[in-house]
Amino acid sequence: MTEASLIEQLRQRLEHQEKQLSSLLQVTQAINNNVSARGLLKLYETLLLRNLGVTKLALFIQHTGWMCSNAVGLSRQQAEELIMSHLPSLRQVTLFKRHDHELAKHFDLVVPVFHKEMPLAFTFVQVARPEVDLSDEAITYIQTLSSIVAVAIENKKLFRAQMRQRFFKAELEMAGQMQTMLIPGKLPNDHRVSASGIYLPHQEVGGDYYDFIELNDHEFFFCIGDISGKGVVAALLMANFQASVRIFAEHERSLDRLAALLNERVNEITKGEKFITLFLARFNRQRREFEYVNAGHNPPLLYHNGSIKLLSEGCTILGMFERLPYVHVHRMSLPGEFMVVCYTDGLVDVMDQEQPFFDVERLSAFLQQHHNLEPAAFNKKLVDALIQFKKQRPTTDDISLLTCRFY
């Protein structure tokens, strides 16, 4: 080889390397300018066609499964039909002709891009220009370019996922704040009645709800409920339901009619897709008359004159039928002081490390032992006992408590 030809060869190689460096710079600038994933893929395709003389190209990336994002010399559908089944076995750069591979009829080379053990992209190329040789230098160029583009696109996916997560978290926080506003923050505590409530959502928001309404100086209404499901949907449905309870309870004097109205309302707002368990109670202090309806809810505990009674009579779960098949309003006369402990199923679903539940029997025994405590102190001691009982086991549902002592 003459000196002139050697110089020319070196000049061409230097020029080729300058083009490759320039193309890498183009890609880097595009990433810095936040070019879209589609724009990056189009630039990638253009650079391979221009700098390596690629005549056939198929690029596969992850998008809820593998898909062909770019195809030259064949359609995307053809590329997917031809290549998809081979992807799991292609773990490294492969020159198909050297390995007598089935794809050698269609492509010269595959360049996979991995992040640790996770594949990000596969580039299949065929070069027909005789002056272009798939040398180690050309393969390194394809690898470098593919890695930069694939990682950039993956970072865009991760960024979008993080933004969605932040947005969802912000929505949850807002829904949680709304729900906290619906839970009564201040309950009565005077010579007539003392009430205290605790709400412990399993997630940021949940489907539990309790309320206490002073209808007049001597008559009180209280309730506790739980909607099927969890999360934002359950919380929003329960918020809608809570407004209905407040409106109906202040105007409807009959508990059986109130239960029927609320059942109609549940069907309207949930379209038959959700159900609500609900306990409704009213106490007239002048007549000492206590009445309640239990619509499929965990039976509250009534402590009176040293004995405990489960308040379980009532009707079916709200929302199960268009019209309630029956409603039993249970009435009783309660002279003297008494205490009612209402709760949701998250309380009695708590397990300890040996699997038994903090069931109604345990709750009854706790009430029998601590019935002399004021409601706020009773609830706090009960939550402390629950934490000690479950030890390190996580809770699986929302926990709500409403404890009322009538003097």
Structure in words:
The structure is a single chain. This protein is 42% helix and 25% strand. The strands form three sheets. Strands 7, 8, 9, 10, 13 and 14 form a six-stranded mixed β-sheet that branches. Strands 2-1-5-4-3 form a five-stranded antiparallel β-sheet, sandwiched between helices. The protein has a five-stranded antiparallel β-sheet with strand order 6-16-15-11-12. The chain is an alpha+beta fold and 407 residues long. The chain is elongated, with a radius of gyration of 35 Å. A hairpin with a 4-residue loop joins strand 9 (276-284) and strand 10. It folds into two domains: 3-162, GAF domain (Beta-Lactamase); 183-406, PPM-type phosphatase domain (Phosphatase 2c, domain 1, 4-Layer Sandwich). Helix 1 (3-32) runs parallel beside helix 4.
Share of β-strand residues = 25-35%
CATH superfamily of the largest domain: PPM-type phosphatase domain
CATH topology of the largest domain, by name, is Phosphatase 2c, domain 1
CATH domain class name of the largest domain: Alpha Beta
Distance N to C terminus: 112 Å
Order of helices and strands: HHEEHEEEHEEEHHEEEEEEEHHHE
Task: State the CATH architecture of the largest domain.
Answer: 4-Layer Sandwich
Number of strands: 16
Number of helices: 9
Q: What's the domain count?
A: 2
Low-confidence parts: none
> Given the C-alpha coordinates, what overall shape results?
elongated
Using the CA coordinates, give the radius of gyration: 35 Å
User: Which assembly state applies to the chains in this document?
Assistant: single chain
User: Describe the biggest sheet?
Assistant: 6 strands, mixed
